[in-house]
Amino acid sequence: MTVTGLDHTGIIAAVSTALAELDINIINVSQTLMDNYFTMIMHIEFDETKQPIASIQERMHDVELQQSLRIRVQSETLFEEMHTL
């Protein structure tokens, strides 16, 4: 999952709260701030049979709108295939 947007208070809280509500575990997180622009990459873990990616994307869309962010959720398999030559 990637999260980008102008920095402001509450970004990490909003994203992590939404994930917790979906019973999604955050495995690893990396975030940085460059010229007031926030970027965060999260490795998350969930049971896709109980929580399909589409439902996660839908929930995170609400966070995008509330927090004025761009949030992308991708399957790890898709990410690996895109970056494997």
Verbal overview:
This protein is an alpha+beta fold and 85 residues long. Helix content is 39%, strand content 32%. The chain contains 3 helices and 4 strands. It has helices at 11-21, 53-67, 76-82; strands at residues 2-6, 25-34, 37-45, 70-72. A 4-stranded antiparallel sheet has the order 2-3-1-4. Strand 2 (25-34) and strand 3 form a beta hairpin. The longest helix has 15 residues, at 53-67. The chain is globular and about 35 Å long.
**Radius of gyration over all CA atoms, rounded:** 13 Å
How are helices and strands ordered from N to C?
Answer: EHEEHEH
Helix content: 25-40%
Structural class: alpha+beta
Any key phrases for this structure?
85 residues; 3 helices; 39% helix
Short description:
The chain has 85 residues and is of the alpha+beta class. Helix content is 39%, strand content 32%.
Write the layout of secondary structure elements.
Blueprint: E1 2-6, H1 11-21, E2 25-34, E3 37-45, H2 53-67, E4 70-72, H3 76-82
Antiparallel strand pairs: 1-3, 1-4, 2-3
Helix pairs in contact: 1-2
